[in-house]
Write a structure and sequence with these properties.
The chain has about 475 residues and is an alpha+beta fold. A hairpin with a 4-residue loop joins β9 and β10. α4 runs antiparallel to α6. The longest helix has 30 residues. The chain is elongated and about 115 Å long. The N terminus is likely disordered. The structure holds iron/sulfur cluster (2 copies). The site of one iron/sulfur cluster has 16 residues, from α13 and α14. One iron/sulfur cluster binds next to α13 and α14.
Length: about 475
């Protein structure tokens, strides 16, 4: 997708340095205010979620080492991998649909990388070194004591915050309890954990102090996929070419026709990825909307309508979208949004309908019915119960058919936390009660008076005459 406009320089980047360091002007405006509300709320959630417990389980935990996940306090063990993989698939479909309709809004508004970078690290930089032009002057100026102190202070704060993020990251991976042990117990008992905290601290510090926007523009696979995820109907942050061009400085007493863009370059100065959105939609744009705010402020000053830069499709930005095309696009957005809601609903239902105990009831291999002398007939089964919770469970087995009795060969009534139990059992029925050759049977696992798992099987015996 390319919305071309007359080229302009990325003037907030020094020309000679190997890497073009981006000095982004401090953003301000309505959208930035909304972004702050969204971003700081997400940060609060991010910092609180691993510490909140539901049923003694973390609200969120992604322990990839032990393949144990906790989502909304529901523990997912390797046995639940199918739910987890299906969930991942749903999330991927959601990302594709969402991006096709709304562009890269996730990146600019909710991605942790952007939130940490723009709402924490860059704000600290503004506080210590000033706005973009002061930072540039400081970096390009002579080495003085004042400069050294500012740099030391900034990087010390960066390392401190990176240390906090590293702890937070580990809290999500190994859980808060394991993290607290690493922090509170002697270092020699947790050398691996201690080394991990510092390794991640320096990774985060390096990312936020030096790598920065390169994560979004070159490293992130989602960013690289934009080319295939976006199409001409996707709404992205775009410059309204037909309204803005031909751009040019305001000249008094000039009859020459000019577009609304006064070529002030403020949209370029505020861009955290250092691009000029007037050159057309680019992979580097993370849809942070800082340029929309900047341009809106300019339009206000020169008494022109806002949204010279805004959320537009390619046709809209070029002033070519017809009413029919607009309606089609809106219909597509509504349909995709509905699909998104349905998929998220399915994922939510899968998570909340998941049982604490998994049971696998199978007829014993090669067995058939057997008659007993007391006038009953039996079928032999093997049963495996898996406890997916972090609590021990005492249970009993019950049949929902009063004519069926259960005889457990190796009675086990205790399921250890995250453990399993393997049983052999007979289902027993009176010969006189058998109505058909194959009857459907349900067995319930009952704990604390509640049915926590139901298993289905069949009972085979010749019907009584
Ligand atoms: S902020 Fe608006 S007016 Fe200024 S250069 Fe950018 S598009 Fe043109
Ligand atoms: S072009 Fe605008 S929306 Fe895109 S990254 Fe730059 S400032 Fe953000």
């Amino acid at each position: 997708m390319e919305v071309a406009a007359k080229g302009s320089e990325n003037i907030n980047q020094p020309e000679k340095s190997k890497r073009k360091w981006v000095y982004a002007k401090k953003p301000a405006g309505k959208l930035y205010n909304y972004r702050q509300v969204v971003g700081y709320s997400l940060l609060l959630f991010l910092f609180v979620a691993p510490f909140v417990k539901i049923n003694d389980n973390p609200f969120l935990m992604f322990n990839i080492i032990e393949r144990k996940f906790s989502i909304f306090g529901n523990i997912f063990l390797p046995q639940d991998m199918h739910i987890f993989l299906f969930g991942m698939l749903i999330i991927m479909v959601c990302i594709v649909l969402f991006t096709a309709v709304y562009g890269r809004v996730w990146c600019g508004w909710t991605c942790p990388q952007t939130i940490f970078m723009e709402l924490i690290f860059r704000r600290i930089e503004y506080l210590i070194e000033g706005d973009w032009n002061k930072q540039k002057k400081l970096n390009e100026g002579p080495d003085t004591d004042a400069k050294a102190w500012r740099k030391i202070l900034k990087h010390a704060v960066f390392i401190l915050i990176s240390f906090l993020i590293s702890n937070l990251f580990l809290a999500y991976i190994i859980g808060v309890d394991a993290l607290l042990k690493i922090i509170t117990e002697p270092v020699d008992q947790h050398l691996g954990g201690f080394a991990s905290i510092w390794a991640f601290t320096f990774v985060f510090y390096f990312v936020f102090a030096y790598v920065r926007e390169i994560v979004c523009t070159r490293i992130c696979p989602y960013g690289r996929l934009q080319g295939v995820l976006l199409d001409e109907n996707s709404v992205t942050v775009a410059y309204h070419v037909s309204r803005g061009e031909p751009r040019g400085k305001i000249r008094k007493n000039s009859d020459e026709f000019r577009g609304d863009c006064i070529d002030c370059n403020l949209c370029v100065h505020v861009c955290p990825t250092g691009i000029d959105i007037r050159k057309g939609t680019q992979l580097e744009c993370v849809s942070c909307t800082a340029c929309i705010d900047a341009c809106d402020a300019v339009m206000d000053k020169i008494n022109k309508p806002k949204r010279l830069i805004g959320f537009y499709t390619q046709a809209e930005a070029e002033g070519k979208e017809t009413v029919v095309e607009g309606k089609k696009r809106n219909t597509r957005a509504i349909v995709y949004s509905c699909i998104l809601l349905v998929l998220m609903g399915i994922f939510g239902a899968m998570i909340f309908s998941r049982t604490d105990v998994d049971g696998r009831l199978l007829r014993a291999k090669g067995s058939t019915y057997q008659f007993r002398d007391d006038g009953t007939v039996t079928n032999l089964y093997s049963l495996e119960l898996i406890n997916k919770t972090t609590k021990d469970i005492d249970y009993v087995l019950e049949s929902d058919d009063k004519n069926i009795q259960i005889q457990i060969v190796n009675p086990i009534s205790h399921l250890p936390r995250e453990g399993n139990a393997k049983l052999s059992l007979f289902l027993i029925a009176k010969k006189s009660s058998i109505k058909e050759y194959k009857s459907n049977i349900k067995l319930n696992v009952v704990a604390e008076g509640k049915v926590i798992e139901t298993m289905k099987t069949t009972f085979i015996a010749p019907p009584s005459k």
